[in-house]
Amino acid sequence: MMVKPYLLTADEGEAVWFLGNLVTVKVGAAQTRGRLTVAEFVNPPGFAPPLHRHLEEDEAFYILDGAAEFRCDGSSFAAGPGDFVLLPAGLPHTFLVDPDAPLRCLQITTPGGFELFAAAVGTPATERRLPDPAPIDPAALGHAAATHALEILGPPPQR
Fold this sequence. Notes:
This protein is mostly beta strands.
């Protein structure tokens, strides 16, 4: 497969509403021969994903705005603008966005393909904003996770 360079401006990239977040894919597996995904995430204040682990992907976050507490394999990291967090494949992890402001970060996964999971669970964003609150179907989330080499291990953490 021929990979070509390209530029996406700040408001470009495929956008998905995923688990109450806005996800804008900047580069995915299709553009990197499966090696990398980079997505801009905007998480609402107080958001936390279920405790989970990626069976194949290392997952990293570069924080642009806001703050969150990342929890991984018994460790806890408070991260804010300019901080970088690495969550290695196979380790249980989650995070809690501070309640006062959204978290905006770059999520980097290698190998690529996380965008396929987000698309399977989410819906195309019709606007570049956080989605309206909506219930999450646990069965659909679990099925999509299993199909994309993720395991849901428990509920979202509480403060």
